[in-house]
Each structure stands twice: as structure tokens, then as C-alpha cells.
Design brief:
α2 runs antiparallel to α4, α6 runs antiparallel to α8 and α8 runs antiparallel to α9 (227-243). The protein has one domain. The strands form 2 sheets. It has a 3-stranded mixed beta sheet with strand order 1-4-5, covered by helices on one side. Strands 2-3 form a two-stranded antiparallel sheet. With 302 residues, the protein is mainly alpha-helical. 58% of the residues lie in helices and 6% in strands. It has helices spanning 27-47, 56-81, 84-89, 104-122, 126-133, 138-151, 174-187, 199-218, 227-243, 263-285, 294-301; strands at residues 2-3, 10-14, 23-26, 165-167, 194-196. It is built from 11 helices and 5 strands. The protein is globular and about 65 Å long. The longest helix is centred in the first third of the chain and has 26 residues, at 56-81.
């Protein structure tokens, strides 16, 4: 098996300032910056192509709105889906993002709301906005999942497969150590040395890299309106649903149905269903995308 490389989750700290402790820069935060930067670069690349109805400068606002939606939606979604009991006990915890707790599904809803508002302001169809941004987040998801791996969180179940990871709390940073000790307690492992699936990396590969490759290739040519959006929902939903089989569910949720269904699977199922419906609608209506000018669409179909 592989040995978990215990990378310090904190890149560096400065301070303390005004008696409130040091300011720490963490890999988790940096990977979010990397994620939005990659999405911005990819978006401007697409907007610069001949025939695009988007301008490269439009992408600046798309990423700004998307970042707000992802962060606010991700935090609120985590509180609603995974941490509501803690919120009821301590409402101020919703602001303590440095203590962790972000939900992809909540972040996705936040992005959809934010980008819908921007589309209306700019006179674009909401469906066209969703189709334009569909191929942009994949590499960013990969980046953030790597940060989950560095943090030593969201581990998979105990395993004996050769690509599993040996996680020894004695060699870990305190942030990672607490996660490992909690896992040992849940699975009654003593002495506490874990042999687990790196579900964070599985998710990064499937939800991130594979998703990006599929969507980027698919959207390299004009597609019917809503088809890219539908394909994104299907691919992400299937990837997340699959990895949940080897990922340890959140301790305060556990399995919600049949001793195997997790909250992540419950939230991903509507994504898959809606994605399939959108793909059927897209190809039945066969409406041309509003993301390329008519002349470009005609040339590509000829």
C-alpha cells in the first residue's frame, strides 16, 4: 500500500495581529483561487474563439459571480445538508469557514442562481449561460479535491487494495491527526493506523479531470441548447454517486437509506435525472446554441 504524504495543510502563517492569533494561508484556500483562475482562463479562451457571442471581458464577471455563488452556496448548503444541528446550537459557525464545511451541491446551486442573475443583466439566455460555463469547473474541482487529500479529510473506507493509503496519526499534522483519530474511533481500529481508499483523489479524477475532458471535447463544437448543461449534471452526478460507495459518509449523517445510501447520493440523484431530461429536451428541440453566431453554426453544420 501507499504511505500517506503528510503535507502540512498550512502553507505559512504570519502574525499574530492585534491579539487575535496568526493569519494562516492554507492549501484549501489556495486551491480555490487556483480553481477560479483556471476557470477564468478557460472561459476567456472559449470566449476568444471566432463566432463566440461572449467577449473575453464578460468572463471576468462570470467568474466573479460564480465565485460568490460557489462560496456562499457551498457554505449555506453544507449547513443545510450536513451541519444543521451545529448551526442551531451555534448560529455563528456559519461564518467560520476556516473550520471547514463546504458542499459541492450547495455551491452548484449558488453558482446557478448567481449566473442566472448575471445572464439576465447581460441579456443572455440563462440556458446559454449554463451551457457556456459547463466545461469550466472540472479542473478546479480536481484542484480542491487535492486540497481535501492534503487536509486528510473525506477519506474512503478501510481497504486492502494496493493503491490504498496507510495513514498513521503519529506522523500527521494536528489537523490531519484529528481526522484520522476520528476515523479509527468510528471503525474501532486499534492501534490507530488506517488503511483506506483515497476517495478524495477518486473524486478529483472522476468529478474533475474526466468531467473536464468530456465536457471540453463535447463543447468544442456547437451543441443544441441545454445539452452541455445536461451532460455536466449527468457526468458529475454519476461520478459522485459512484465514489460514495467507497467514501465514508459524514459522521453526523451516516447512511440514510438501506444501510448504504448517503447524503451525497441523495443529492446527486436529482442531478442525474435532471441531466437526462435536459439532454432529451435538447436533442428533441434541437435549438441552436446562443453561444455562437448564426454564421458560425451554419458553417459548422455544412
Amino acid at each position: 500500500m501507499l504511505t500517506y504524504p503528510a503535507i502540512d495543510p498550512v502553507i505559512f502563517s504570519i502574525g499574530p495581529f492585534f491579539g487575535i492569533g496568526p493569519l494562516s494561508v492554507r492549501w484549501y484556500g489556495v486551491t480555490y483561487v487556483i480553481a477560479f483562475t483556471i476557470a477564468w482562463w478557460l472561459g476567456r479562451k472559449r470566449a476568444s474563439q471566432p463566432g463566440s457571442t461572449w467577449k473575453p471581458t464578460d468572463v471576468d464577471d462570470i467568474i466573479f459571480y460564480g465565485a460568490l455563488g460557489a462560496i456562499l452556496g457551498g457554505r449555506i448548503g453544507w449547513v443545510l445538508f450536513y451541519g444543521f444541528e451545529r448551526f442551531v446550537e451555534t448560529p455563528s459557525m456559519i461564518f467560520k469557514v476556516w473550520q471547514g464545511g463546504m458542499s459541492f451541491h450547495g455551491g452548484l446551486l449558488g453558482v446557478l442562481v448567481a449566473e442566472s442573475i448575471l445572464a439576465k443583466k447581460r441579456g443572455h439566455r440563462i440556458a446559454d449561460m449554463f451551457d457556456f460555463i459547463a466545461p469550466l469547473p472540472g479542473l478546479g474541482i480536481l484542484s480542491v479535491r487535492i486540497a481535501n487529500f492534503i487536509n486528510g479529510e473525506l477519506w474512503g473506507k478501510p481497504t486492502t487494495v494496493p493503491w490504498g493509503f496507510i495513514v498513521d496519526p503519529a506522523n500527521l499534522h494536528p489537523i490531519q491527526r484529528q481526522e484520522a483519530l476520528s476515523m479509527c474511533e468510528r471503525f474501532d481500529i486499534a492501534p490507530c493506523v488506517l488503511h483506506v481508499h483515497a476517495s478524495q483523489l477518486y473524486e478529483g479524477f472522476l468529478e474533475g479531470l474526466v468531467l473536464f475532458v468530456i465536457l471540453w471535447i463535447f463543447t468544442s463544437k456547437p451543441r443544441p441548447r441545454l445539452a452541455p448543461t445536461g451532460l455536466f449534471l449527468i457526468c458529475y452526478g454519476l461520478a459522485r454517486f459512484s465514489v460514495e460507495f467507497v467514501r465514508v459518509p459524514d459522521e453526523n449523517r451516516g447512511y440514510l437509506l438501506f444501510d448504504w445510501v448517503t447524503m451525497g447520493q441523495i443529492l446527486s440523484t436529482p442531478m442525474i435525472i435532471v441531466g437526462i431530461v435536459l439532454m432529451v429536451i435538447a436533442y428533441r428541440r434541437n435549438e441552436p446554441s446562443g453561444n455562437v453566431v448564426l454564421e458560425k453554426r451554419i458553417a459548422d453544420s455544412g
